[in-house]
């Protein structure tokens, strides 16, 4: 073992990481096939994580020195690895079932208005619910509702969609001149808000839109202009005295309809951009175009671009493999109905469906 390296095994795959690395970071080092989902953790933001519980995993072995399992599921985004630790994520049934419950909790007050939400198509909650959720929800009580609120001249808050991940609060704390919004009240009454309406006004406030995993914070200059999967994202940059100037430009025809920071494989912006680049520079002449943007994670955005290197949703492929029969193209094609009835597949179908069999006697 290399000096100052810890060995950790996640879903049967071993890797070496530096001391202080969390389980989530170690899993991401291996790859998306074992990385837990994360709705509140955001690597560029310090102290983020530990809010949504979406990344819970089973620690089957605490370390090489203490081989006992941890009694409860642990939040992988805030739990540091130990040398010899063994972690179970997708291979553990308890973890999989618990995530279904987490999805239900996150959707308790969510309005499920994806057809009219600007975040649709790039929403982390959509991906999380599709991959880990259930088809039915048990919640029958009245949902918590709020009026839409302008918390800045360019940002609108839809508190109905908020899951209280605190990402926008950490963003305002760490990259803006002064935070003027936060979580008000307690318990079920907790909400993101400002004491003074439209108080959010600084050069980097637009990054709260990028970090929001749902459609709670939206860009007022982009609202209802276009579905993201019908737009064309390109990489571009410009010389800016406030930020890196590296962005995604989103085109509708020849018109730049929005500007966002570049997101990595995990949907996180590595280099935050200023409001001047985001809201004021929406002409092609303002930018140096680098080429079509490559979406580094599975997304309807990448799938719609007909690229050879498009990343297909892993969970959709797994679902198809588990629920649909592999077609054997070498089988003879039966053309007549009588031949079909003599086939083994037809007989197996009739055995499984007695009612259908009785109707065809």
Automatic annotation (TrEMBL):
Domain (4Fe-4S His(Cys)3-ligated-type) ranges: 94-133
The UniProt record lists the keyword Transport: no
SUPFAM superfamilies per UniProt: 2Fe-2S ferredoxin-like, 4Fe-4S ferredoxins
Principal location listed in the UniProt entry: membrane
Gene Ontology molecular function, alphabetical: 2 iron, 2 sulfur cluster binding; 4 iron, 4 sulfur cluster binding; metal ion binding; oxidoreductase activity
GO cellular component: membrane
2Fe-2S ferredoxin-type domain mapped to chain residues: 4-93
The keyword Transmembrane is assigned to this record: no
Domain of life of the organism encoding this protein: Bacteria
Record PROSITE patterns: 2FE2S_FER_2, 4FE4S_HC3
Pfam families: Fer2_4 (PF13510), Fer4_Nqo3 (PF22117), NADH-G_4Fe-4S_3 (PF10588)
Similarity field: Belongs to the complex I 75 kDa subunit family.
Stated name of the protein: NADH dehydrogenase
């Amino acid at each position: 073992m290399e000096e100052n390296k810890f060995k950790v095994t996640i879903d049967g795959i071993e890797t070496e990481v530096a001391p202080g690395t969390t389980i989530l970071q170690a899993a991401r080092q291996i790859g998306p096939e074992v990385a837990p989902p994360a709705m509140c953790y955001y690597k560029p933001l310090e102290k983020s994580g530990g809010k949504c519980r979406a990344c819970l995993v089973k620690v089957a072995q605490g370390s090489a020195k203490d081989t006992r399992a941890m009694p409860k599921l642990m939040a992988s985004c805030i739990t540091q690895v130990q040398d010899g630790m063994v972690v179970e994520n997708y291979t553990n049934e308890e973890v999989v079932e618990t995530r279904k419950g987490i999805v239900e909790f996150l959707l308790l007050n969510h309005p499920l208005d994806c057809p009219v939400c600007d975040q649709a198509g790039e929403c982390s909650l959509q991906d999380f619910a599709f991959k880990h959720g259930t088809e039915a929800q048990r919640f029958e009580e009245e949902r918590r509702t709020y009026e839409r609120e302008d918390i800045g001249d360019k940002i609108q808050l839809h508190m109905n969609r908020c899951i209280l991940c605190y990402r926008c609060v950490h963003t305002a704390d760490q990259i803006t001149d002064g935070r003027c919004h936060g979580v008000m009240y307690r318990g079920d009454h907790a909400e993101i808000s400002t004491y003074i309406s439209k108080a959010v006004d600084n050069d980097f406030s637009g990054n709260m839109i990028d970090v929001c995993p749902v459609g709670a914070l939206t860009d007022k200059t982009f609202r209802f202009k276009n579905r993201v999967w019908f737009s064309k994202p390109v990489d571009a940059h410009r010389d800016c005295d406030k930020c890196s100037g590296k962005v995604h430009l989103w085109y509708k025809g020849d018109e730049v309809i929005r500007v966002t920071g570049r997101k990595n494989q995990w949907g996180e912006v590595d280099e935050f951009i200023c409001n001047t680049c985001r809201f004021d520079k929406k002409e092609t002449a303002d930018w140096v175009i680098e080429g079509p943007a490559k979406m580094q994670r599975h997304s309807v955005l990448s799938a719609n671009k007909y690229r050879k290197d498009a990343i297909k949703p892993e969970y959709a492929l797994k679902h198809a493999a588990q629920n649909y029969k592999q077609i054997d193209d070498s089988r003879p094609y039966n053309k007549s109905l009588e031949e079909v009835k003599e086939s083994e597949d037809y007989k197996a179908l009739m055995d499984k469906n007695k009612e259908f069999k009785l109707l065809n006697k």
